[in-house]
Amino acid sequence: MERFFHPSQNMFADTFESEKCYHIFNHAVHGNLLFIQETNYHYFLQQLTKHTQFVCDLYAYCLMPNHFHLLARIKNQEALIEYYHTRKQAKDPQYNPDNFDKTTFDTHKFVMQQFQNFCNGYAQAFNRFFNRKGVLFMDNLKRKVVKNEVYFTKLIHYIHYNPVHHGFCKDLNDWRFTSYHSFLDNRTTPLAREYVLNWFGSPQEYSRFHQSKPDSRLANLMEV
Q1: Quick one: 137 exposed, middle or buried, by C-beta within 10 A (0-12, 13-18, 19+)?
Q2: 191 - beta bridge partners?
Q3: Is 183 exposed, middle or buried (0-12, 13-18, 19+ CB in 10 A)?
Q4: CB atoms closer than 10 angstroms to residue 28
Q5: pTM score, two decimals?
Q6: 70, 133, 208, 217 — which has fewest CB within 10 A?
Q7: Quick check: 102 and 27 in contact, CB under 8 A?
Q8: Measured distance CA(133)–CA(186) in Å, rounded
Q9: Using CA atoms, how far apart are residues 172 and 182, in angstroms rounded to an integer?
Q10: pLDDT tens readout for residues 48-107
Q11: What phi and psi values does residue 73 have, to the nearest 5 degrees?
């Protein structure tokens, strides 16, 4: 399997870089909730897929009432630039990609814009539905570089275990708004399911790994 880690890099990331893996998370402001009704969770995932599927591969997620966690790898530079051209041509049929200078392409700015579009779109819909005004998310989308293979494996477990950690359920099987279940059935999913299952070796090994509690040392690093 392809590996994509850079052990020497700083865990705390200021920018998104192509072909690197990140733990991405954010929190509602001022004790507010991000999700009130079940339909909010589903809409959030729909919008996440709509805005980010062409800039990153999604390996895991967990949606909690007032925050969310994602594990994603930014796509390679060629894929990002191709999507950039697609978006430009959709807005301007006269746009000519032959005039594009790839040395000026800002990976972080382009990727961040897709996540901002996603968060802003969800917040606007949420505010309209609940007759609410003002910001919904904290100012900055938080992100941390996944520094090695062990960390990647433990982080998938930690993200799925988050509802148990916060006391919303006693068993991770009982929280429906994580990606845990998506790796154990054949329903359509935006997740890189085959990659994750191959990473663990099999669905059985994936399930077995989740039967233990996650590494407690991750809690201090991951809390939002």
Answers
A1: buried
A2: 58
A3: buried
A4: 21
A5: 0.90
A6: 133
A7: no
A8: 39
A9: 13
A10: 999 999 999 999 999 999 999 999 999 999 999 999 999 999 999 999 999 999 999 999
A11: -115, 130
What is the tens place of the pLDDT at every residue in 20-59? 999 999 999 988 999 999 999 999 999 999 999 999 999 9
Side-chain-side CA neighbours of 223 within 13 Å: the count stands at 6
Give the side-chain half-sphere CA count within 13 A for 9. Answer: 18
- Please give the Cα distance from 44 to 46 (Å, whole number): 5
Q: Where are the domains of the chain?
A: 21-222
- Residues near 197 by beta carbon (within 8 Å), at least 6 away in sequence: 183, 203, 206
What confidence tens digit (pLDDT) does each residue in 169-192 have?
999 999 999 999 999 998 889 999
Q: Which two tokens stand for residue 107?
A: 């990976």
Of 90, 66, 190, 223, the closest CA to residue 138 belongs to 66
Identify the DSSP state of 53. T
User: 195, 57 in Cβ contact below 8 A?
Assistant: yes
Q: Report the alpha-carbon distance of residue 111 to residue 105 in Å, rounded.
A: 11
DSSP labels, 125-166: HHHHHTT--S--B-SS-EEEE--SHHHHHHHHHHHHHHHHHT
Give me the amino acid identity at 17. E
For domain 21-222, say whether CATH 3.30.70.1290 is its number. Answer: yes
